[in-house]
Write a structure and sequence with these properties.
mainly alpha; 0% strand; 2 domains; Cytochrome Bc1 Complex, Chain D, domain 2
Length: 190
Protein backbone atom coordinates (compact mmCIF):
# COMPACT_ATOMS: atom_id res chain seq x y z
CA UNK A 1 0.00 0.00 0.00
CA UNK A 2 2.91 2.37 0.75
CA UNK A 3 4.33 1.85 -2.75
CA UNK A 4 0.95 2.66 -4.32
CA UNK A 5 0.66 5.82 -2.18
CA UNK A 6 4.15 6.98 -3.14
CA UNK A 7 3.45 6.29 -6.81
CA UNK A 8 0.20 8.25 -6.67
CA UNK A 9 1.90 11.12 -4.85
CA UNK A 10 4.68 11.14 -7.44
CA UNK A 11 2.19 11.17 -10.33
CA UNK A 12 0.21 14.00 -8.75
CA UNK A 13 3.40 15.98 -8.16
CA UNK A 14 4.42 15.48 -11.78
CA UNK A 15 0.98 16.63 -12.95
CA UNK A 16 1.18 19.78 -10.82
CA UNK A 17 4.66 20.58 -12.17
CA UNK A 18 3.41 20.03 -15.76
CA UNK A 19 0.43 22.34 -15.18
CA UNK A 20 2.66 25.05 -13.65
CA UNK A 21 5.06 24.67 -16.59
CA UNK A 22 2.23 24.96 -19.12
CA UNK A 23 0.85 28.06 -17.41
CA UNK A 24 4.32 29.62 -17.30
CA UNK A 25 4.95 28.79 -20.98
CA UNK A 26 1.64 30.21 -22.21
CA UNK A 27 2.00 33.29 -20.01
CA UNK A 28 5.57 33.98 -21.16
CA UNK A 29 4.67 34.86 -24.75
CA UNK A 30 7.68 32.85 -25.92
CA UNK A 31 5.69 31.05 -28.61
CA UNK A 32 5.14 33.27 -31.67
CA UNK A 33 1.53 32.87 -32.90
CA UNK A 34 2.10 35.12 -35.94
CA UNK A 35 0.98 33.58 -39.25
CA UNK A 36 4.27 34.67 -40.81
CA UNK A 37 6.33 32.53 -38.36
CA UNK A 38 6.08 28.78 -39.00
CA UNK A 39 5.40 26.39 -36.14
CA UNK A 40 8.29 24.66 -34.47
CA UNK A 41 8.77 21.29 -36.24
CA UNK A 42 7.47 19.32 -33.26
CA UNK A 43 4.42 21.60 -32.98
CA UNK A 44 3.73 21.23 -36.71
CA UNK A 45 4.00 17.44 -36.51
CA UNK A 46 1.70 17.17 -33.49
CA UNK A 47 -0.93 19.54 -34.93
CA UNK A 48 -0.89 17.84 -38.33
CA UNK A 49 -1.31 14.40 -36.75
CA UNK A 50 -4.07 15.69 -34.45
CA UNK A 51 -5.93 17.26 -37.40
CA UNK A 52 -5.59 14.22 -39.66
CA UNK A 53 -6.70 11.73 -37.01
CA UNK A 54 -9.57 13.92 -35.83
CA UNK A 55 -10.92 14.24 -39.37
CA UNK A 56 -10.46 10.52 -40.12
CA UNK A 57 -12.28 9.44 -36.96
CA UNK A 58 -15.15 11.90 -37.35
CA UNK A 59 -15.69 11.43 -41.09
CA UNK A 60 -15.61 7.64 -41.34
CA UNK A 61 -19.35 7.24 -40.73
CA UNK A 62 -20.45 9.58 -43.53
CA UNK A 63 -22.48 7.97 -46.32
CA UNK A 64 -21.21 9.15 -49.68
CA UNK A 65 -23.92 9.93 -52.27
CA UNK A 66 -23.45 9.64 -56.04
CA UNK A 67 -20.56 12.03 -56.75
CA UNK A 68 -20.93 11.63 -60.52
CA UNK A 69 -24.30 13.40 -60.70
CA UNK A 70 -23.79 16.12 -63.35
CA UNK A 71 -26.21 18.55 -61.65
CA UNK A 72 -24.45 18.19 -58.30
CA UNK A 73 -21.06 18.74 -59.94
CA UNK A 74 -22.39 21.84 -61.71
CA UNK A 75 -23.85 23.26 -58.51
CA UNK A 76 -20.61 22.49 -56.68
CA UNK A 77 -18.63 24.36 -59.34
CA UNK A 78 -20.57 27.54 -58.62
CA UNK A 79 -20.21 27.11 -54.87
CA UNK A 80 -16.47 26.50 -55.18
CA UNK A 81 -15.98 29.54 -57.41
CA UNK A 82 -17.91 31.73 -54.98
CA UNK A 83 -16.44 30.53 -51.69
CA UNK A 84 -13.19 28.62 -52.15
CA UNK A 85 -10.88 29.96 -54.85
CA UNK A 86 -9.37 32.73 -52.74
CA UNK A 87 -7.74 30.12 -50.50
CA UNK A 88 -7.76 26.87 -52.50
CA UNK A 89 -7.18 28.24 -56.04
CA UNK A 90 -8.72 27.55 -59.42
CA UNK A 91 -6.89 25.79 -62.26
CA UNK A 92 -4.23 28.10 -63.66
CA UNK A 93 -4.80 30.77 -61.01
CA UNK A 94 -2.03 32.44 -59.05
CA UNK A 95 -2.07 32.71 -55.27
CA UNK A 96 -4.41 35.41 -53.98
CA UNK A 97 -3.23 37.95 -51.42
CA UNK A 98 -5.35 36.10 -48.88
CA UNK A 99 -3.78 32.71 -49.64
CA UNK A 100 -0.23 34.10 -49.48
CA UNK A 101 -0.88 35.36 -45.96
CA UNK A 102 -2.30 32.15 -44.54
CA UNK A 103 -0.41 29.74 -42.31
CA UNK A 104 -0.76 26.90 -42.53
CA UNK A 105 -1.16 27.12 -46.29
CA UNK A 106 -4.51 25.71 -47.44
CA UNK A 107 -4.28 22.78 -49.86
CA UNK A 108 -4.31 23.68 -53.55
CA UNK A 109 -7.48 21.79 -54.47
CA UNK A 110 -6.95 22.49 -58.17
CA UNK A 111 -4.02 20.05 -57.97
CA UNK A 112 -4.88 17.65 -55.17
CA UNK A 113 -7.84 15.43 -54.48
CA UNK A 114 -9.25 15.01 -50.98
CA UNK A 115 -10.99 11.81 -49.88
CA UNK A 116 -14.76 12.48 -50.18
CA UNK A 117 -15.77 11.78 -46.56
CA UNK A 118 -12.92 13.91 -45.24
CA UNK A 119 -13.76 16.71 -47.70
CA UNK A 120 -17.41 16.69 -46.61
CA UNK A 121 -16.51 16.77 -42.92
CA UNK A 122 -13.95 19.57 -43.39
CA UNK A 123 -16.33 21.72 -45.45
CA UNK A 124 -19.20 21.17 -43.02
CA UNK A 125 -17.30 21.62 -39.74
CA UNK A 126 -14.25 23.71 -40.70
CA UNK A 127 -10.87 23.46 -38.98
CA UNK A 128 -10.04 25.49 -35.91
CA UNK A 129 -7.26 28.08 -36.15
CA UNK A 130 -6.72 27.47 -39.88
CA UNK A 131 -9.08 30.02 -41.50
CA UNK A 132 -11.23 27.13 -42.82
CA UNK A 133 -14.82 28.10 -41.97
CA UNK A 134 -17.58 25.69 -40.98
CA UNK A 135 -19.94 25.99 -43.96
CA UNK A 136 -22.41 23.60 -42.32
CA UNK A 137 -23.94 26.48 -40.41
CA UNK A 138 -25.01 28.17 -43.67
CA UNK A 139 -25.25 25.30 -46.20
CA UNK A 140 -27.24 22.07 -46.16
CA UNK A 141 -25.63 18.66 -46.59
CA UNK A 142 -26.77 18.33 -50.22
CA UNK A 143 -24.99 21.58 -51.13
CA UNK A 144 -21.85 20.50 -49.31
CA UNK A 145 -21.91 17.14 -51.11
CA UNK A 146 -22.22 19.02 -54.42
CA UNK A 147 -18.97 20.82 -53.57
CA UNK A 148 -17.37 17.46 -52.76
CA UNK A 149 -18.59 16.07 -56.10
CA UNK A 150 -17.01 19.02 -57.90
CA UNK A 151 -13.75 18.63 -55.95
CA UNK A 152 -13.41 15.09 -57.31
CA UNK A 153 -13.28 16.51 -60.85
CA UNK A 154 -11.32 19.73 -60.21
CA UNK A 155 -7.71 18.43 -60.25
CA UNK A 156 -8.11 17.09 -63.80
CA UNK A 157 -9.59 20.34 -65.19
CA UNK A 158 -7.78 22.80 -67.40
CA UNK A 159 -8.33 26.51 -66.76
CA UNK A 160 -10.63 26.61 -69.80
CA UNK A 161 -12.72 23.66 -68.58
CA UNK A 162 -12.99 25.25 -65.14
CA UNK A 163 -14.18 28.57 -66.57
CA UNK A 164 -16.70 26.78 -68.81
CA UNK A 165 -18.29 24.74 -66.00
CA UNK A 166 -18.43 27.73 -63.66
CA UNK A 167 -20.09 29.82 -66.39
CA UNK A 168 -22.84 27.15 -66.63
CA UNK A 169 -23.26 26.76 -62.86
CA UNK A 170 -26.54 27.87 -61.30
CA UNK A 171 -26.28 31.25 -59.59
CA UNK A 172 -26.37 31.43 -55.83
CA UNK A 173 -28.18 34.63 -54.95
CA UNK A 174 -26.97 34.39 -51.35
CA UNK A 175 -23.30 34.57 -52.35
CA UNK A 176 -21.16 37.50 -53.46
CA UNK A 177 -19.44 35.84 -56.39
CA UNK A 178 -16.04 37.13 -57.51
CA UNK A 179 -16.22 37.57 -61.33
CA UNK A 180 -12.42 37.23 -61.71
CA UNK A 181 -12.33 33.90 -59.86
CA UNK A 182 -15.27 32.66 -61.91
CA UNK A 183 -14.10 33.72 -65.35
CA UNK A 184 -16.75 36.49 -65.42
CA UNK A 185 -19.53 33.99 -64.68
CA UNK A 186 -20.43 36.07 -61.64
CA UNK A 187 -21.72 38.83 -63.95
CA UNK A 188 -24.66 36.74 -65.10
CA UNK A 189 -28.13 37.21 -63.71
CA UNK A 190 -30.35 34.37 -62.39
Amino acid sequence: MKIFGKGLLGAMSLAVVAIIGAVAFTGSGIYNVGADAPHWPVTHTVLQRLRDRSIAVRSRGESVPDLNDPQAILKGAGQYAAMCTGCHRAPGAQDSELRRGLYPQPPDLSRQQIEPRAAFWIIKHGIKMSAMPAWGSTHDDATIWSMVAFLQKLPSMTPEQYKAIVAKAPPDDDMDMDPKAMGNAGNRKG
